[in-house]
Amino acid sequence: MAETAQPRPMDAHTQDSATRRDFLQIAATALTGIGAAIAVWPLIDSMNAAQDTLAAGAPLDVDISHLQPGQQIVVLWRSKPIFIVNRSAAELQTLQEPQVAGLLRDPQSEVEQQPPYAQNWHRSIKPGLLVLVGICTHLGCIPEFKPAPGGDLGAAWPGGYFCPCHGSRYDLAGRVFSGVPAPYNLPVPPYTFISDAVVRIGENPPGSSFDLDSVVQL
Amino acid sequence: MTGPGNQSQSKLVRWIDHRLPIFTFMQHELHDYPTPRNLSYWWNFGSLAGIMLVIMIVTGIFLAMQYTPYSPLAFDSVERIMRDVNYGWLMRYIHMNGASFFFMVVYIHIFRGLYYGSYKEPRELLWMLGVVILLLMMATAFMGYVLPWGQMSFWGATVITNLFSAIPVVGHAIVAWLWGGFAVANPTLNRFYSLHYLLPFVIVGVVVLHLVALHQHGSNNPLGIDRKGPQDSIPFHPYYTIKDMFGLSVLLIVYALFVFYMPNALGDTQNYVQANPLQTPPEIVPEWYFLPFYAILRSVPDILFIPAKLAGVLCLFGAIGVLFVLPWLDTSRVRSARFRPVYKWVFWLLVADVVALGICGAHRPEGWYITTGRIATLYYFIHFIVLLPVIGWLERPLPLPTSISAAVTRKGGAALAGAAPSMEKH
Amino acid sequence: MRAPVLAAAGLALAALAAAPALAQEQPSIPTQSWSFDGPFGTFDRAAAQRGFQVYEEVCSRCHSMNLLHYRDLEGIGYDGAQIAAIAANHQVTDGPNDQGQMYQRPGRPSDAFVAPFPNEQAARVALNGALPPDLSLIIKARADSSLTKDIGGGADYVDALLQGFKEPPAGMTMAANMNYNEYFPGNQIAMPQPLHGDDVQYGDGTKATLPQEAHDVATFLAWASEPMMEERKRTGAKVLIFLLAMAGVLYAAKRQIWADVH
Fold first, then answer.
1. A4, B263, C73, C246: which has the fewest C-beta neighbours closer than 10 Å?
2. What is the architecture, at CATH level 2, of domain C33-68+112-251?
3. Which residues contact C100 (CB under 8 A, 6 or more apart)?
4. Which helix (H) or strand (E) covers residue C253, if one does?
5. pLDDT computed for residue C59 by the predictor
């Protein structure tokens, strides 16, 4: 940058000093540039999640002792709605019917949208209790809980979730239907049972490790 | 004119420059811009002030992303920045100490201008724009200091806004309007936050005007004589870019010593106590850069029919107002104090006077400090209103050198034409 | 140019010297040596943990530390399990629950330190009208403004204050419920002497003398005021080394470029 096309009286100088001049000026420019670049990092990093935000994302204990079959509660964990459903025997039966599986895009939960311990037909640890991140994998709206079969969602509706934004549909295991905008099943967060009555969202069962950030679509 | 168009390798540069001549502009204003060859390190402080402004704006924008301008939460949100936000402490300490360093740099810049007569014809508007920048800086710094909502924030805001109540008839209405309520409270904090974010960009605008005015006639220099020809100047780049960069690195070292090793040395401990409208701290002291003005405010007694409170406020604003008319108060046609044997002494007396005012401002106005404060205040105005015009008439300046190059090189101007390619093409 | 500068400097100095020394009623605060002094100072973890114990068992009966969270204790060397245990020792008000009621639950690491009183009025009514200040920033709020002492000045003050309780001098009338402290501005402090020695049983076997407790609690409070101090000083060393190198190279380059002109 410093050496421009303008004529400089170089005759008096030896080749040596010209090299030294170049080196010094390149070093000066480089150091200044490096310094400026380093100084930018704290500014960028300050926009990452702060310590209090991260701490507030710690695992959350939820009391499920009052949750009756067929009911859902929604809790907020890491600013996301978490659906917790106590599925009835009839609903679990529906999940296993072959004609329902035929309507789904990923009935076997092959895409990593859940921890390994929830990669089964009921997408959960205990078959009855479903835990989902309630965010549509299409564009982030919150699907509505529509557990009753049929109704205004059509005679074939087996019960599940319906996203009001663009009509995406999921069954009661959070598995997405074919032919709707959402591409993936609803994610299952890490969770574990502290007791029969308390489920801890955000912590894996002993021996497992699963990070919610590793799912394909959140 | 050797624009980049005819020597640049890049077709893209030429394409752009033909439509938007930014490269020609930069070539002209940075590269070719002829600058006196004899500028001392005192001339670094202008560009340093510009860099401080950038540092303040950049850290300020990122701090604003984390700050909450709501009185019950403001104090805690600043502490959250210090404790929980990644590098929040660094940004905050840079910003907090940056105010002090910005003022320090600008004060040196101003006193340099006073010593070398940089405000004289044809640079009067350049100087006055600088005074506008100073005023805007003071307003911005004052409102920024309120934002952490500590004890000194709150009581400083209370005392300073109350200054306006000295205005006859409409004073109290103005103060209530400034507060947006019955006292300094959340509405005040909110508007100060808004304005603290806005004013720096107004400063940027005035700085641009300041630079346009500067580039019209170029920099003054330690000799205070005009450039007489190409042999007196050198291109700004690389000579002054490298010199400014070196000066910057020195400033940053001192700045870093404060930020990393004594970050609270220039602040007030009381501002680590949350604002309490029911308890005034034992002493309300502004930041050091306002102390001389604060001393003037408090020193002034009743003057004839003007009550002390109003007189103090008038003198406070007069202290800056007098700088606006300085170019016409100084009657000497010689710029640099180097050739003004009497003014040289008076200049340093003014420096001592301002320091003395600062010391008075830091102490309770009792006994000795009142006397000194009054004398120093009086002298401040005498300096500008009496001494400058009179000295200009009576003083016999030393003979001025014939040219810059003759004065600064052993061999005189002749040897230079080849050594420093002149870019003077006006 | 030199003569006027000297004259001006002399004037300013004379102004300073002539300033009447404000009558100091308090004895000057003894300067201590702290682990966190100096450009490479760090917080003595053991002392800070002992100080935290003193805070927990004595100070926290009256003083809140609202800006601290149990998770922050990692900074003075507690591990995750210890922090969880410390937090769980405190009952935190949370809610509302499904019945619309607030309820108590054991603390979590992400909780702020539980305050002894729910609000200012509750504190005042319980403490003869006095309001114990929050201690989160007490070291920085009391630090003297000397340029180089950083947070050490505030620690000196707290250390001295805790040991400064004495019988009032003869002839001094104390206001009701006030106690004499030789380092407290005005000498009359609402806080009764909080530490007497052997107020706690230190787990590490250190003898809990009054000076020891005062020193430990001041160390803990210094950390609480400025928990980022170690990172600040470490970063500062790196930044300064870089800047010095940069200044050197820039100076050399400046000399090079200007060689033609001089």
1. A4
2. Orthogonal Bundle (1.10)
3. none
4. helix C229-258
5. 97
Token output for C130: 């006095």
For B269, which residue in chain C has the nearest alpha carbon? C141
Please list the residues that pair with A60 across neighbouring strands: A201
Query: End-to-end distance of chain A based on CA atoms, in angstroms?
Result: 47
Beta carbons of C55 and B402 less than 8 angstroms apart = no
Residue B346 corresponds to which amino acid? V
User: What interface predicted TM-score (ipTM) does this complex get?
Assistant: 0.91
User: Which chain C residues are Cβ-neighbours of A16 within 8 angstroms?
Assistant: none
Sign of CA dihedral A120, A125, A131, A133: negative
Residue A31 CB-density burial (10 A; 0-12 exposed, 13-18 middle, 19+ buried): buried
Domain range B285-395, CATH architecture: Orthogonal Bundle (1.10)
Q: Nearest by CB to B260, which of C136, C236, C262?
A: C236
Instruction: Share the mean pLDDT of chain A.
Output: 89
Contact B163/B179 with Cβ under 8 angstroms? no
Residue B7 has pLDDT above 70, yes or no: no
Q: What are the tens digits of pLDDT across the range B236-248? A: 989 999 999 999 9
**What residue ranges do the domains of chain C occupy?**
33-68+112-251
Shortest distance, CA A17 to any CA of chain C (angstroms): 9
What's A207's domain CATH number?
2.102.10.10
Domain boundaries, chain B: 32-280, 285-395
3-state secondary structure of C61: helix
Interhelix angle C210-225/C152-162, rounded to 10 degrees, is 150
Residues 6+ apart with CB under 8 A from B327: B119, B120, B121, B123, B124, B127, B128
Instruction: Give the rounded distance of the alpha carbon of C94 from its chain centre.
Output: 30
Neighbours of B99 (CB within 10 A): 20
**Domain encompassing residue A44:** 1-48
Cβ contact C110–A52 (<8 Å): yes
Confidence band, pLDDT 50/70/90 cuts, at residue C146: low
B42: left (phi over 0), alpha (psi -120 to 50) or beta: alpha
Would the CA dihedral through A116, A120, A125, A130 be positive or negative?
Answer: positive
Contact of C104 with C130, CB cutoff 8 Å: no
